[in-house]
Amino acid sequence: MKYDFDKIIERRNTHSEKWDGIYEKFGTNDLLPMWEADLDFFTAPCIKEAVTKRAEHAVYGYTIREDSFFESIINWQNRRNNWKIEKEWIRNSTGTIPAVSVAVNAFTKPGDKVIIQDPVYYRFFDSITLNGRHVVHNTMIYENGKYFIDFDDLKKQVDSRVKMLVLCNPQNPVGKVFTKEELIKLGEFCLENDIIIVSDEIYSDNIFSGHKHIPIASLSKELEMTTVTLFGPGKGFNLSGLKPTIITIANPKLREEYDFVSQAMQIMLKNTFSIEAIEAAYNCGEEWLDECNKYLEKNRDFMIEYIDNNVPGVKIIKPEGTYIAWLDFNNLGMTDKELEKFAIEKIKIGFKYGYTFGNGGSGFQRINFGCPQSMLLDGLQRIEKAVKNL
User: Fold this and answer.
1) Alpha helices of 82-197 — where are they, by DSSP H?
2) Phi-psi category of 148—alpha, beta or left, where left has phi over 0 and alpha has psi -120 to 50?
3) Whole-structure pTM value
4) pLDDT tens-digit series, residues 11-60
5) Phi/psi at 185 (nearest 5 deg)?
6) How far, in Å, are 80, 117, 333 from residue 181 at the CA level?
7) pLDDT at 269 over 80
8) Which CATH number applies to 61-284: 3.40.50.2300, 3.40.640.10, 3.20.20.70, 1.10.10.10?
9) What is the mean pLDDT of residues 80-104?
10) How many angstroms separate the Cα of 28 from the Cα of each of 35, 98, 384, 385?
C-alpha cells in the first residue's frame, strides 16, 4: 500500500474525545478506546497540505464557498454514486445531528411522529423527542446474523401524524448497506404515505466488497423531491472534528422550509478549514480512501475470523460498510448494566453500549475497528481473555 495504516499514532493530549475523554465517559483511564466512531489514521496527505496551506495564511476571517467547493461535491457524487446533484441543492451544517434537528423542526410540527429504524444512532432520539415530536420505533428484524426492514410493522404503525422517516444508510451501528430493492420498497412506501425521508448517508464512503452505496434520492425523480440527504467526508476521511456535513435538497419547497429554520437558528455559518478539507478530500483524496477501505475490510475479516475461532460466546454481525461492528454478547446471560461493568472492569475496552441504540440493542456492544490492526488485535485479545475467565 502507498499509505501506512499500520502506524500507531499518539492521540492523547490532542483534545481527542475518543482518547482524552475516556475518564469522563467511563470513570477510568485504563481502557482501550474503541467507542467513538473516528479513525486512528492520519487523513489523506493532500487534505493536510490544503489545510496547512490555508492555516499559514494566518488570517481566519469570515469566509465564502466558491464554485470550486460546489463542483468538488457535485463531481464526487456523480463519480462515486452516479448521482447528479445541482449547486442550488447544497447546504452545509455543523454536523449530521444538527441537520436532522433542523429537518424535524422544518418538516414536522409538535406532536407529529417521526419513524426511526432501530437499533440506530442514539442521537436521533433526542433530535426528535427534545423538539416535541414522537418517535415511531420500526425496529429492524434480526435473523441469522443479518438485519432487515420490518415492512409489516411499518405499515401497522403509520397514521396521519407520521410525517418523516430518518433513514441511516449505511446503518449505524449494525453496518448494513441497504440494497436497491430495499430502498425502492421503502421509498415507495414513503411516497404512498406522504412521508418525507431524511437520509443519513454519512458513512457512504466506507463500503466493502460485494456492496454498493445507493443514495435513495437517486432512484427516481419522485424520491429526489421528497428526500433530504446528509453526507460528507467526515467519516471516510477522518474529518469529523471539522464538521464537514453536507445537505442536499432538490425540492424547492422543502429547501425553503429547511433554510427558514436554519436561518432562524443561525447554524449555517461556514468554517474556513472545513471548506478547504472538503474540496481537497473530494478532488484528490480518492486514492487514499480506496486504500483505507481495503485496509478496513481486512480488519473486518480479521476480526470476524478471530472472534469466530477464539470467542465462541460472542457473535459478530458482519459489517457491509462503515468501520464499526455490532457485537452480540447475549449468550453471556448478563443484563445491560452487568455487561457495561464487565466491559469496563474485565475486558478493559471502552465500547459504545448497545442499549443506547434503542430497541434491539440490549446485550450488544458497538466496537470501532478503524485502527491499526495491532491495536485491533489488542482489543480482541482483551475480549477473549475476559470471556474465557468468566
Assistant:
1) 96-107, 123-129, 151-157, 180-192
2) beta
3) 0.97
4) 999 999 999 999 999 999 999 999 999 999 999 999 999 999 999 999 99
5) -65, -45
6) 20, 17, 36
7) no
8) 3.40.640.10
9) 96
10) 14, 30, 21, 20
